[in-house]
Amino acid sequence: MGARNTIYEYGTVAKWLHWIIAVLFLGSYVSVYYLKWFTEKDTPENWTALQLHLSIGITIGAFVLLRIFWRFTNPAPRLEPGSRLEHIAARTWHFLLYLVMIIAPLTGYLGTGVNTEYFFLFEIPQFADTSLFTSLVQNKMGMTFKQFEEPIDFIHKEVLGEWLVWLLILVHTLAALYHHFIKKDRTLVRMTTG
Hints:
Largest sheet: 2 strands, antiparallel
Strand order of the largest sheet: 1-2
Order of helices and strands: HHHEEHHH
Structural class: mainly alpha
Distance between the termini: 8 Å
Strand content: under 5%
Radius of gyration: 19 Å
């Protein structure tokens, strides 16, 4: 198995990107649920959990960009045999997954009201402190950060984080298991052992 995809198999790069992003999404959720359920506001533990969530989110964004670049320069293998409806559903679902993988980290960064201490190595300024925010949001749109943050946070937390990401991951996982155990095709194997 090589680094690049073939018409039959995913290559090692596509597999690694897929599973790294999956683990990062899991880490993102673990850190934010730990923050909500097990820490008190304005404590060092709360801050650490928040910073881990922000750092993981930025890392997800970087890996998603790599994955999209790889996808455009290295087309996916052909779909396994199935009905036209199954193929449309698979393509639509993957498109939605990619869209959410872009929107979630982006809205997370745009709506964050603090700097990110990236894995406590260096600091990434919050969007509100950038010249892009000043020129685009304040000057062109005439909005304060609070006005800008409300709809962004709603999308990131209430729409994506609370239910849409979980729904997409659940359906994606169930579809892979359906292909593996019911249809007995190579859909899941192509993204694992090949």
